Amino acid sequence: MPNAGSHPGARTSGEQMNEIRVWDLPVRVFHWALVLLVTTSWITAQTGFDEIHEWSGYSVLTLVVFRILWGLFGSENARFSRFLTPPAVAWDHLKATSTRTAPHYDTHNPAGGWMVIALLLMLLLQAGTGLFSSDDILFEGPFAAAVSSQWSEWAKNIHARSFNIMLALVAVHVLAVGLHELHGERLIKAMWFGSKRSDQAAAAQRPLWLAAIVLALAIAAVWGLLSLAPPVSAGF
Ligand code: HEM
Ligand code: HEM
Questions:
Q1: CB 163, CB 3: distance < 8 Å
Q2: CATH assignment of 19-226, given 3.40.250.10, 1.10.10.10, 2.60.40.4070, 1.20.950.20?
Q3: Share of the chain above pLDDT 90, in %
Q4: Which of 51, 78, 105, 129 stands the most exposed, by the fewest C-beta atoms within 10 Å?
């Protein structure tokens, strides 16, 4: 049996199911903006729209910083402490899924919680290495000139390879969401409209003004980081 009791988001029985708000607006806007911007980063990398690639990359970085802060100070269901479990619990959940005995969750299930962390870390790595990458012609990240060409080359290689790893993770993520949908759990509807059917009481939501402050902090952090970059060399 999955250790559902140790996960605060696990639903207990099928009694008295109500439509409750599970994802606040900031998490939903974060998610769909992320999908749009990662797609933009991918397309612009293939088509050579360097400036758009650069700005969509900075936006992804800002979103990830925002989500990390919101995972610490945001609404209850958005908090890492609400959906991160010891790996053994995630493993039990996967085993229970294969025998169709896994409980439903209002927030991310224990395995999904670790997938969220993996995706956020890969996005950080992707945007972080982009800052040091260069195509050796006309396009370079703001810190490429601040490090040796060997380091920049190394960052560029990771930037290219980690993208493939991220794509694989996204494929598993979308497949997992699709499987839940096939079994009647309306996860996509919940990530779009915010609500799910549940027998639990709705978790507390933080006000939107707090999300606006956290977003402003994330923008300021990325802006501050970029302002440390050396001026663009006249050679380009
Ligand atoms: C670039 C592609 C994608 C990335 C990087 C991505 C990333 C993420 C992340 C980081 C979360 C956690 C949300 C949070 O707690 O803030 C999440 C959740 C979610 N994503 Fe995606 N996602 C992608 C594409 C998609 C697509 C195409 C769909 C729809 C089929 C989708 C459906 C969902 C759903 C339903 C959840 C909530 C899962 C749950 O209830 O546990 N995602 N995604
Ligand atoms: C998280 C968002 C990002 C994604 C998904 C992404 C994705 C990609 C991909 C797929 C490539 C092509 C790699 C190859 O096959 O050669 C690429 C190249 C590149 N990206 Fe990004 N990138 C992101 C963020 C950034 C950022 C923030 C910068 C900094 C300005 C950046 C700078 C570059 C540069 C300079 C190249 C060319 C490197 C080369 O020629 O291989 N990227 N990016």
A1: no
A2: 1.20.950.20
A3: 83
A4: 51
